[in-house]
Amino acid sequence: MTDSATQGIKTVLHPVADLAKAKAVYAALLGVQPTTDSSYYVGFEAAGQHIGLVPAGGPQSETSPVAYWHVPDIEAKLAEVTAAGATVKEAAHDVGGGRLVATVTDLDGNVLGLLQDQ
After folding, report:
1. How far apart (Å, rounded) are the C-alpha atoms in residues 95 and 107?
2. Rounded to the nearest 10 degrees, how much is the dihedral formed by the CA atoms of 109, 96, 15, 75?
């Protein structure tokens, strides 16, 4: 193992069919209004976590929530998990503001997210 230990799951993205309706449900659940509110993404900050809503599963067409493990070095962590048997689903890329994300699938097909803030 390397010095690229995770910083925990701090971000979970949920695919939704109707962004406006889902936004109301999540605002009621979390007790806060969104901090990011656009036609392609709604994000909430609650209890030290970021909860995101992605219409129609986003560009990756996810069908279930994806938990994002925050890491200090996304490329190093990708190398570690793929060496251990995971498969890259979505290579690391910038989603804005210097934030890098990637996804891998484990041996059972579960999608695991990686996130690095720069």
Report:
1. 26
2. 10
pLDDT digits (tens, 9 = 90+) for 2-40: 566 888 899 999 999 999 999 999 999 999 999 999 999
Q: State how far the Cα of 73 lies from the Cα of 115, in Å rounded to an integer.
A: 9
**Torsion over CA: 19, 12, 41, 14 (sign):** negative
> Residue type for 107, please?
L
SS3 call for 20: helix
Whole-structure pTM value? 0.84
27: CB partners within 8 A, 6+ apart: 33, 34, 44
Contact 59, 20 (CB under 8 A): no
pLDDT at 62: 77
- The answer to whether 107 touches 118, Cβ cutoff 8 Å, is no
Looking at residue 4, its pLDDT comes to: 64
* Alpha carbons 29 and 31: distance in angstroms, whole number: 6
